[in-house]
């Protein structure tokens, strides 16, 4: 449990109280307590008493203490029992906050998304006090947009996949399973999800899948393929289960992982050898050859194993991939946050989590003062943090801990800290967090101003996009890449699956220096590195192009040399 978990608890309670039309002062008390915890720069392990934190009263303190002791909140559980689950889904619709949802429910009794959609289509919402025709149209459009998604972003697909995997792991008659298709290739979006399942109990599987919490309906039922509609709130997506029982498993997995272009190129190679590839194996002289792993499948054609993320357009088969970056090449993470700003863990806890991952160096990069919503650091707080990082670094022999910042590039192109402050840091990241609606010229002016600064070493999430949620600001990509070379500034591939920014299509085949980082706000986020590596592999980026593949000694020299 972390401070972030408690903040989320308090915010959830406030939302449920709103849904139940509770007194506004009570709702405000939980929101104020959450904000107070967010501002406090200590981690949960450092907080001895919640009574000492201004903004946390007796009632909220007792809720927090119960949650820490019991691992759950009786108040939140009680509120959830009293609240139809459909109301929480409604709050995700643009234009419908908890207060409005509560008013609709109290007036009409509507508690499901289907009921709400029918109500909106019949034009009845505009007749309620506080709702007009335009509001009704906007809410209906928002609902339809959320419920009629054709392709889901990778972050949603990861959640869906993990939910299904948890279910499959509890079926003891399944020998093994793997995700396949675009989801296994870690594509930015997926229209459906494929699983390869090895079992001799197809009939039992069909019975059991119908009992899953996410099961909506069958699309197809069969011994070799069963398809269902997955539903969780506003998320609805087709999931195909390919059922196999023999030695064809890895051929089936390779086949349905794709991509189509990758497999076409493999079939061309097979044809040159008078062989044929299908989902059951490789046909040779009237026999079908099967394999004990995907690596063995590729070795059959004298090819290296291609990571699923790299299997995109077929061109990867015709190049030497021996120097393409892998997860094992990463020696450190140089973009992460702590409780000094909006992270869940303190500096020492982040350091020790990175030591467990075998990292040789890290850079602590909390937000700068302009990002007040993320508890950004004032000049004084940053200088205090630098001092603390220096002391902690002296305590550890197995890792180097550097003092950095993720500094805002302001709307007019000025930077959030003066050069006098920046020169005290080991490493400076600059990024844009505001005024996304500016023109391309204005955005490029901001980026250029930062990249020309002698202390700015890299630009974080350079386009500002959030996959499936936000396009990002207007960036002249070619000019950005050119400017990065001219100013010796490194561009980031942000590994958070909501970002993957820069994207693989932007960096594909480009001769530019990059860094891949998790932007971790929680120790669990350090796991995101694999998604950033997948993006680099799709872009066919070599190890030598990635800053944090440098050894500890090399990175230290890089820091000391300056920009």
Characterize the structure shown.
With 563 residues, the chain is an alpha/beta fold. It has four domains: 3-147, Orthogonal Bundle (DNA polymerase, domain 1); 152-244, Beta Polymerase, domain 2; 249-318, Beta Polymerase, domain 3; 327-561, TIM Barrel, CATH 3.20.20.140. 41% of the residues lie in helices and 16% in strands. The protein has 22 helices and 17 strands. It has a seven-stranded parallel beta sheet, sandwiched between helices. Strand 9 and strand 10 (287-289) form a beta hairpin. Helix 1 (3-19) packs antiparallel against helix 2 (24-39), helix 1 (3-19) packs parallel to helix 6 and helix 7 packs across helix 8 (133-147). The longest helix is centred in the N-terminal third of the chain and has 17 residues, at 3-19. The two termini are 40 Å apart. 41% of the residues are buried. The mean pLDDT is 95. Residues 1-312 form the DNA-directed DNA polymerase X domain. One of its GO terms (biological process) is DNA repair. Keywords: DNA replication, DNA synthesis, DNA-directed DNA polymerase, Nucleotidyltransferase, Transferase. Its cofactor is Mg(2+). This is DNA-directed DNA polymerase.
Domains, number: 4
Q: Specify the number of helices.
A: 22
Number of strands: 17
The separation of the N and C termini measures: 40 Å
| Mean pLDDT value | 95
Mind telling me the CATH superfamily name of the largest domain? Metal-dependent hydrolases
Helical content band = 40-55%
Return the CATH class of the largest domain.
Answer: Alpha Beta
CA-based gyration radius:
26 Å
CATH fold-level assignment of the largest domain: TIM Barrel
- Low-pLDDT stretches are none
Reported CATH architecture of the largest domain? Alpha-Beta Barrel
Strand content: 15-25%
